[in-house]
Amino acid sequence: MLGFKAGLEIHQRLATSRKLFCRCPAAVGEEEPHGTLTRKIRAVAGELGHVDPAAAFEAARGKTFHYQLFPSSSCLVEQDEEPPTELNSEALEIVLQVSKALGARVLDEVHVMRKTVADGSAVSAFQRTALVAVDGKLETSQGFVGIATVCLEEESAGIVEKTLGQSTYRLDRLGIPLIEIATDATLKNGAHAREVAEKVGGLLRSTGRVQRGIGSIRQDLNVSIAGGARVEIKGAQELRDVADLVDFEAKRQQSLVGLHASVRRRGFLGLAFSRPVDVSNVFAGAKPFFSKPLQEGAVALAVKFMHLGGLLGQELIPDLRFGSEVSDYAKAKTGVKGIVHSDEDPSKYGLTSADFDTISLALDCGSNDAWAAVVAPENVAVPALKAAFDRAYLLEVPKETRRAEGTGSRFMRPLPGAARMYPETDVVPVPVAGRMLSKIPLPKSLDERKADYVKLGLNTELAEKMVHSYDWPLFDQLCRQADPKTVAWVLLDVKPQLRRQGVNVEMPDSRWKDVLALYAAGDVTRAALPDVVQFAVQNPAAALADGVREKKLQRVTGKPLEVLAAFLNHDFGQIMRLHRLTVDASELRTLLASKRP
Question: Could you give the CA distance from residue 252 to residue 409 in angstroms, rounded to a whole number?
Answer without folding.
Answer: 10
